[in-house]
Amino acid sequence: MRKVGLVVLVGLGLGSLVSWQVREHDLFWMIRAGEEILQTHRVQTVDTWSYTIYGKTWINYQWLAMVIFKIVYTIGQTDALIVLRVFLAALLFALQGLIIWRALGSSPEPISGWTWQRWPRWLSAYLLLAPALYVAVVFRLQMRPDLFGYVIFSVLISIWVSPWTENRKIFCSALGLLLWTNIHSGTAVFGAVVAGSFALAAVRPFKKTLACLGLFVLTFFATPQTYRVVEVLLTFFLHYEGYNPDFQPLTLKLFDVGKFGWAATLWLFLTLAAWRRIFYCRRKRIPLPAVYSNFWVASGLGALLTAMCVKHIRVFPYALIFFMPVLATASDEWLKKPSAPKFL
């Protein structure tokens, strides 16, 4: 229990660092949209607010997040929104502890020669990786629907590295995808692709695999917008040409340490460490945790997410959360070396 308490404490500590004032540029627009949904009991399909595009089709793909924001804002104004941001960020970092614990196993075996002999290896890896993850993704820890997505994505990863039965993994993944696609259909595709790929690698027989994939597809379209979410995805990933900085590509100027550089540099370091571990385990025939032991699944999804990070920096959190079980084994291996620091 003390170890769990320490994970929660670290999560709360990192989460409290995002307790800055509300400055998200479109948050109050989303609150207003949520208010309209609660008043009319329907999700918007036509733009009735804008003068220039009045009457045009509006695909509201994040309606549930808007409703949540409105409810929270009604309870405590901006202070309540800050509390929600801190809570979700703390939950996100605490979930990394669960992922690492499941990736390395729950054995309390300490690392020989360490000062605090009671600390298990998974906890040492968590204390190393959690702050690094914070620095790499802090620029995305905004009070936006994406923050819910990071939490749900972490839950999905923890499910598929767990010792649960296939049926339990499938059922819980479907529930997570159903929630996510109504919170933000544009990013729920990350969860659908990753969970679907894990199912292809781990679920047997093949008929059951197909049924699992069909279920995931159905949950992805189980929104008030149904098939129109496809248009959202095409706009985001293929045809987006807006000014939103979230969609800017990874360029050399972003490595300026005086500005965005710490996040970009640490993302690059962690990504290279994950790839090195994947290929090292492949060459030495060392199994990675759970479904990550399938080289083609781990490398295929990793390559996809890495490429998307280069195209859109907003994908940083999803890629690093996906690599967390791999980074956990890499950290564990490094911490065993005599040259590793002894203060953890």
How would you describe the overall organization of this protein?
With 344 residues, the chain is an all-alpha fold. It has 12 helices and no strands. Helix 1 packs across helix 3. About 2% of the residues have low confidence.
**Could you tell me the number of beta strands?**
0
**Nearest-angstrom radius of gyration?**
21 Å
Mean pLDDT: 85
Helical proportion? 55-70%
Largest sheet entry: none
Alpha-carbon distance between the two ends = 19 Å
What proportion of the residues form beta strands (DSSP E)?
Answer: under 5%
* SS element count, helices: 12
Provide the succession of SSEs: HHHHHHHHHHHH
Label the structural class. Answer: mainly alpha
What overall geometry do the principal axes of the alpha carbons give? globular
Uncertain stretches: 110-117
By oligomeric state, this entry counts as single chain
Q: Briefly, what is this?
A:
This protein is mainly alpha-helical and 344 residues long.
